[in-house]
Each structure stands twice: as C-alpha cells, then as structure tokens.
Amino acid sequence: MSGKERERFMKTVILCGGLGTRLSEETHLKPKPMVEIGDRPMLWHILKMYEKFGFNDFTLALGYKGEVIKDFFINYHSRTSEVTVHLASGTVDYANSTAEDWHISMVDTGLNSMTGGRLHRLEPYLRSEGTFMLTYGDGLSSIAIDKLLEFHKSHGKIATVTAVRPTARFGGMVLDGIQVADFKEKPQTGEGWINGGFFVFEPEIFDYINSDSDVLEGAPMEKLVNDGELMAFKHPGFWHCMDTVRDRKNLEEMWQSGKPLWA
User: Fold this and answer.
1) Is 195 exposed, middle or buried (0-12, 13-18, 19+ CB in 10 A)?
2) How far is CA 243 from CA 42, 138, 143, 249, in A?
3) How many CB atoms lie within 10 A of CB 56?
4) Which sequence spans correspond to the domains of the chain?
C-alpha cells in the first residue's frame, strides 16, 4: 500500500459529545454538531472538508444526545436514495444513492467526559492505528488538510495543533475626538493566535491523558509543551466556530451566498 493509500485510511476523530450550552436554542433537541447550516448538519460540513482531501474514515466521539447522530447516519443511505418498499416481504430496494463513501464509527464516550476524556476512551480503537487526526464538531475552516498533515510529518513530534486568527467578536472603532472615524469588525492583531482544532496526533498522545475528567486543552497540552512535543500549523485563512446563535447565522449566510469559504 502506497503512502497516499495509507493516508486515505487514516482515522479522523470528531469530538461530538459536548452540551453546547451557549447554543441552547438549538441544542435542547440535538447535539451541537447536528445544528444545521443550510439543510445539512455542521458535522456533515466538517466531514466534507476532510473528504475533499481524500480522508473518509471517521470516528465520532459521542456524548450528549449521541442517538441523534446515530439515527442520522444509520438512515443516511435511505435519505440519499430512491427507495422501493416491498411490504409483503418486508424488503427494501435502494437506487441512485448519492451517499458519500464514508466509513463512520460512532463510539459513546460518556455524557460528562471532558475533551481529553473522550479521546482517552477511544484509545482501544486508535492506539494501534498510527497517526490520526482530530477536531471539534463545531468549527469550519479553509485549511488545507494535506498541508497540515505534511507539516506534522515534517517535524516528527507527537502533536500538531492548528493556530488560527479569527475575526474579533466585537466591532472595532477608531475615534476622532467624539466622532467615530472607523467602525468594522477586524481580524485579531499582533500574535492573536488561538487553538483552532484540526489536530494531528501520534499514538503517544495517549500517554498524556488518563481519565474522563482530563481536559485535552489543559494538562495534556501543557505537558506536551513542556516536553517540546507540540507544534503549531499556522492557518491565517478562514476559520469560524459555532458557539452562539450569531455564529450560526453568520455561517448560514455564507452558505446561502453560494460561496462558503470552507467548501
């Protein structure tokens, strides 16, 4: 198997178990990754991002309302096909399916597990698989996944995190006395890099997490830093999370424009 073929079967983990309390208008009925942008869940958009670069083997770390995600993908083939039901025999024929060629494993990682804890519960499925990718179920980006992976392989460390510089959440103003001279949203200035998800990990990451209560962005990342094992892939382009109703509205407008920057 060539290197490119091996990459095709590389596992990609999506953290899908959080409560999404800041988007409670939507998440009282469904987990945040199932909130729709256009007529498709956020999770679908994330999987399409990876598919674009040839990755189609996904492991979903489920928690809050994980059954909603299971139901969506269990019934996905029928939703994307023409269906003929033979009532007497109880059989169903599917034709002209437009379902993507995705392999999706869905694992219950606990209702209250933290981000590191969810990854910890996936160790039996991932430890022997070699390099794998991981991201959150609420962020979209124009990141080139192939370049991210190439960068990770080039430095030989355990972990790569994607560093992003999102637009500031509040409008910036320039004042001339008491008159407003400029008013607009501005990208973060200075360093301003934040964790944008889109990680790449070697299996040794499991040596840094121990329990359901571990927060991936806490002690595990700090120890990786202290050990010199965490590198940053800088992505100055588009990145947008969906934390609030306003975030969802922004992403919806981008999708309806016909030119979403993540697609």
Assistant:
1) middle
2) 12, 7, 19, 11
3) 17
4) 3-256
Q: Which of 58, 79, 102, 40 is nearest to 260 (CA)?
A: 40
Could you identify the residue written with the tokens 């409560």? 19
- Which token pair is 216? 């991936």
- In this structure, the number of other CB atoms found within 10 A of the CB of residue 9 comes to 13
Where is 194: in which H helix or E strand? Answer: strand 194-195
How close are the terminal C-alpha atoms of the chain, in Å? 29
What are 227-239's pLDDT values in tens digits? 999 999 999 999 9
The string of pLDDT tens digits covering residues 162-200 is 999 887 665 565 556 755 456 555 555 555 789 999 999
CATH 3.20.20.150 assigned to 3-256: no
217-251 burial string, b = 16+ CB within 10 Å, else e?
A: eeebbeebeeeebbbebebeebbbbbbeeebbeeb
pLDDT tens for 31-65 read 999 999 999 999 999 999 999 999 999 999 999 99
Q: 141 by DSSP, 3-state: which?
A: strand
Low-confidence winner among 106-110, 118-122, 123-127, 181-185 (lowest mean pLDDT): 181-185
Tokens 């990770």 map to which residue? 152
